[in-house]
Amino acid sequence: MSALPTPFAITLDVGSSRANHTGSWRSERPEYVRLTAPCGAGCPAAEDVQQWLYHAEEGGYEAAWRKIMERNPFPAVCGRVCYHPCETACNRGQLDDAVGINSVERFLGDQAIAHGWTVRAMPPSGRRVLVVGAGPSGLSAAYHLALLGHHVTVRDMAPAAGGMMRYGIPKYRLPREVLDAEVQRIADLGVVFELGHHVGDVVAEQLDGGFDAVFLAVGAQLPQRTYVPAGSAAKILDAIALLRDVEDGSAGPPLLGRRVAVYGGGNTAMDAARTAKRLGADEAVIVYRRTRDHMPAHESELQEALEEGVQVRWLSTIAHADAGTLTIERMELDEHGYPQPTGRFEELEADAVVLATGQVSDLSLLDGVPGIERRDHAVTVDANLMTGHPGLFAGGDMVPAQRTVTVGIGHGRRAAHGIDRWLRGIETEAPVELNDSASETGVGPQPSLTEVPFERLNPWYYSDAPRTVRDQLDAVRRCTTFDEVVLGLDESTALFEARRCLSCGNCLACDNCYGVCPDNAVVKLTPPGAYAYAFDLDFCKGCGLCAQECPCGAIEMHPEPI
Amino acid sequence: MTATRLKYFQTGSFAAGNRLVEPSERSEQAAPGRANAITCGHRACQGCGEALGARYALDAAMRATGGELIAANATGCLEVFSTPYPESSWQLPWIHSLFGNAAAVSTGIAAALRAKGNTRTRVIGQGGDGGTVDIGFACLSGMFERGDDVLFICYDNEAYMNTGVQRSAATPPSARTATTQAVGEAPGAPWGQGKNAPLIALAHEIPYVATATIADLRDLEAKVERAMQIRGARYLHVLVTCPLGWGTASGDAIRVARLAVETGIFPVWEGGDGEVTAVTRIRHRTPVEEYLKLQTRFRHLFTPVRDDATIARIQARADRNIERFGLVGEAGQHPLDLHEEGGS
Amino acid sequence: MPEQLEGSQAVARTVAACRPEVICAYPISPQTHIVEALSRLVKSGALHPCEFVNVESEYAAMSVAIGASATGARAYTATASQGLLYMAEALYNASGLGLPIVMTVANRAIGAPINIWNDHSDSMSQRDSGWIQLYVESNQEAADVHVQAFRIAEALSLPVMVCMDGFILTHAVERVELPDPDRVDAFLPAFEPRQLLDPSAPVTIGAMVGPEAYTEVRYLAHYKQMQALDLIPEVAAAFQQAFGRASGGLLRPYRSSDAETIVVALGSVLGTIEDCVDQLRDDGHRIGAVGLRTFRPWPAEEVRRALEGARHVIVLEKALSVGIGGIVAQNVHRALEGLPITVHTVIAGLGGRPITMASLRSLCERGLAGTLPDTTFLDLEEALVDAEIGRMRGGRRSGPHAENMLRDVGTVGAAGLT
């Protein structure tokens, strides 16, 4: 090069424009945000689904599982029996199919069992809590209380823990070794199980045992009987009892006959009909008074039942039951969708009628306890699930709520945190917040409670990928056995499914903002700070391209402060 | 049974980067050490598609050449906003001479390098649509026919934006510009005019011609990469949006470019030696109206009275592109976007 | 060793000796023989390394030279007439960017009417382009000045135009002693660019400069060109020392030291003028001549010194600034400001009109007699223009002058090469 200086003004040094801070042009500035993905918002167990999928997407299965375990001790169970409102809420459903969150959860749960992953409790608090009922709600409460360092005793009148998970959900939906493994993990935290123990007077047991607080989760096991006019020879039994007997096995397989009618349209009805087929019935017919649209059973349950040959008599009620024959009255729906009798009758051959018309809780253990308020076979509780009796909490099927395993698990956790606060003397009416325990390991700060609508996403960026449907046992084979019907994902399909997650409202570190900024005003942070990137406000002109082109809606434009 | 793995990478190759793949499989724009051939502090409008397109293309070329690159720039927005004395946004050797001569200056650079026996350093000529398809066309054509070792990149924003949005030979029919105003019986740019520079380039039988947009970064980068592997005259025509001239929201700059592709308005293809050899298929075919209505330069098609006849005419033009280039059909996909079973 | 050579060949071979690395050209008469010869030298391998680029226009030719020069290559091109005008935008750019390109202009008239023959209309039209303009008298000088041109250009980082009369020199076979290539190598150092497109040390060349610095940039361009007034004589002296011949420089007086009347001119016509001076001197007249070699930058002081002893100065020039008259004469006028000297403008040789000894002699005699008007169009066919002026007065639609006058002189249509 020449020693002469380069020509004045027409020849410039490279990169010298960095002296020109174009940030002063800006009227709006971009900000990274963390929002609530609809899956998590829809989870009764308050799982931060997006966050655990984020780990799973990278193959970080243990981290993903631990993320679930912050909220829910039953990934393997829920991965089988949850009706996954997360998937109903999933934004990907508007693109192709919802992410198979439930399948991935099951995969993670099974991985944990296979690898023997364990969790650790906080140091002992010295406090003692009694949990009555070893169903999903009680076990969840026991788990979270134990994590918080409290000594927990669980009492249940059944010989094994699990509640409806064991005695209501058939094996073909929930293999018992899976349930046992997840229960054992809770026991391993030091939770004491006292089974075959009927709690008659809860206040007395609390005093006797020196418990600082009690969580009641006795479930709903009393059949809510519908009156069916019946001849004396008619064989009528309760679905819940049928399922319990099948599980118990001590009395041998229940004798139902060749043709079984199941009365009702809920999930228990589906389980009963499918169980009847497995017990040898040639025909299992569900009698339901309304239409498919109105059926309370989950669509997948009905679908699987139909695939197994279960029949449904829609718009039908049982007018009379006799030995071998039912008289069915045809119904029609009025303008409000309620069934009305038509006066037209037909016959249905059935050797037995299984009633699956709902259950209620046995609240007798609360008789005489001061401060308890009941309404419609349920106990009234506050936002932290405490009853009107101080220190006495209740959840699961015995409080007003949807009755599902996952709702129960959510109650257990909420109650555990309510109890924990109560034990620490924090008097509060405010509910335990969704985010109370989580996200030390997550990317970025706590999510805002703003839920991300599909419209906020930029779906163009996601590769096309229809859902991986879980394999199902061959229908013929599964009708005759109690083998698990729905098989799990293998690793590659689980990974595939996890990666279908759109990461709604949460940065997925795709570098798009970094790539699309015409002003190079996005900086990659190494290591990541609150977010993986930051805006260089010296140069950001506020064009909004990053926000518009963020696949997952994790950038917001805000007016520049004046 | 052979073990198979399902490959799927969430955003695949659509986003700039992807934490699920190796850094080498991410775009250059995802790289922390990308060249930033045009860096910040430039005075392009907010959401400038040309600033973005230039960085996309040049950074990819910098990667492909290991930084052995010289660029010659035509007069225009890109030149003006990047080099007002005393500041330059360029970080590679760069020269601006005139509006119409960028291709010839590039030829001169290439000739000098050749004379000096320098086979490492490569040359890119670049300009807007005015400097390429209008005033620079003779020099461009000359460079093509001589086969000079230059990649010429046209950043096409479909009008003379630097001078205040006047019509160029790349302005689409019916578009409002300052010299094709939205007045009279046939508002906007006239029909039956203009030229298709990429096809004309192809007719020169040069070894590489391609079109691309700022909406598909990986495609653009791959094309630059391929172009840099070839010696001789090459042409890349990149559709870049202009929020000012098109009347779009600045944040919509990429979205509008994407719609230009998805509607068939702007066919994305690749070819050489006189033949089109590959096209980028439309992912989600979209009516042109979705594209037009985001831009005030087409507002007269919708208000005060909707001009169905002209909208249909523009749709027919897009449909012709789709048919002519075969833009609808089984897409050739980037490996990262595949989800069928891969190797064992 | 002296040879009989066509001017174009002499220039081509001398340029080749200067080892240009990039030559770009577009054909236009009368420059074509130069680049044809160079293309042959490159193609044959005799000139290597060098890229010869057949461009599609003069605009491209200058643009290729700009790119090549900015990349550190010694760049050369040649043109004439319309071609020079077509590259006008690029000429200003090359000088503005300070790129030391050397270009031969084979001087030719500008159309319309189209005319391929010699005058200085083309290069004179670009006198403000920022290029150094050197005019040569002979093919020997043409060859020699090209060598000097590269040295001047590269020393100052400014482009240089070597102007030689089209056909009269380019196509004339004369005795020329070509500069010896080895001596050229010694005379001409390797090109060290002041700015360079180089990936190892990148710069931005060609910024946009606004009102805040444009004046300064232009001032510096002027300052830099004015430095050539010192450098050009130095280089000419160095050349003379190296090659033993006087060539180039700012200007050359001929028998003018005691002259009362001095004829000032540029280019090949100086030979005829010097013969005329000799004749008139023989007749006892105190007449001399000054041949301008450098027109840009304008050597005002040297011109003043060369002419200050005269009473009459006759500027004979082959270009016309329509609307004012002489171009060189205006510059001479300025150089003589305040001196009691009458400056006469003579427009001569336009479009290839021969400048005969007879006409010159009669012109000089009128000058010596003090009867020369302020501006003279040498050998103007006054009857012809008077007739046309009469027609014009007769009506607006009198038709094109050129066609009308050609009809008057009996020529059917205009024909020529381009």
Helix-strand blueprint:
The complex is a heterotrimer of chains A (562), B (344) and C (418).
Chain A: E1 11-13, E2 28-32, H1 38-41, H2 49-57, H3 61-69, H4 75-81, H5 85-89, H6 101-115, E3 128-132, H7 136-147, E4 151-156, H8 164-167, H9 176-187, E5 192-195, H10 202-209, E6 213-216, E7 222-223, E8 236-238, H11 239-248, E9 259-263, H12 267-278, E10 283-287, H13 299-307, E11 311-313, E12 316-322, E13 324-333, E14 339-350, E15 352-355, E16 359-360, E17 374-375, E18 378-379, E19 392-394, H14 405-423, H15 475-480, H16 491-498, H17 512-516, E20 522-524, E21 533-535, H18 545-549, E22 555-559
Chain B: H1 49-65, E1 69-73, H2 77-82, E2 94-96, H3 102-115, E3 122-128, H4 129-134, H5 137-146, E4 150-156, H6 197-203, E5 208-213, H7 217-228, E6 234-239, H8 243-246, H9 253-262, E7 269-272, E8 275-279, H10 288-292, H11 308-325
Parallel strand pairs in B: 1-2, 1-3, 3-4, 4-6, 5-6
Antiparallel strand pairs in B: 5-7, 7-8
Chain C: E1 3-6, H1 7-17, E2 22-25, H2 32-44, E3 51-54, H3 58-70, E4 75-79, H4 81-86, H5 88-97, E5 102-107, H6 121-125, E6 132-135, H7 139-156, E7 160-165, E8 173-176, H8 181-187, E9 203-205, H9 214-243, E10 251-254, E11 261-266, H10 269-282, E12 287-292, E13 294-296, H11 300-307, E14 312-317, H12 328-335, E15 342-347, H13 357-369, E16 375-377, H14 382-394, H15 401-409
Parallel strand pairs in C: 2-3, 2-4, 4-5, 5-7, 6-7, 11-12, 11-14, 14-15, 15-16
Antiparallel strand pairs in C: 1-8, 6-13, 10-12
Helix pairs in contact in C: 1-2, 1-7, 3-5, 7-9, 10-13, 11-12, 14-15
Description:
The complex is a heterotrimer of chains A (562), B (344) and C (418). Chain A is an alpha/beta fold. Among the domains of chain A are: 38-118 and 464-498, Alpha-helical ferredoxin (Fumarate Reductase Iron-sulfur Protein, Chain B, domain 2); 128-221 and 361-423, 3-Layer(bba) Sandwich (FAD/NAD(P)-binding domain); 250-355, FAD/NAD(P)-binding domain, CATH 3.50.50. Helix content of chain A is 28%, strand content 17%. Chain A has 18 helices and 22 strands. In chain A, 52% of the residues are buried. By secondary structure, chain B is an alpha/beta fold. The N and C termini of chain B lie close together (10 Å). The relative contact order of chain B is 0.14. Chain C is α/β, with parallel strands linked by helices and 418 residues long. Chain C has two domains: 3-243, Thiamin diphosphate (ThDP)-binding fold, Pyr/PP domains (Rossmann fold); 251-377, Rossmann fold (3-Layer(aba) Sandwich). Chain C has 15 helices and 16 strands. In chain C, helix 1 (7-17) runs parallel beside helix 7, helix 3 (58-70) packs parallel to helix 5 (88-97) and helix 7 packs across helix 9 (214-243). The chains are: A alpha/beta (562), B alpha/beta (344), C alpha/beta (418). Chains in contact: A-B, A-C, B-C. Strand 1 of chain A pairs antiparallel with strand 9 of chain C, so a sheet runs across the interface.
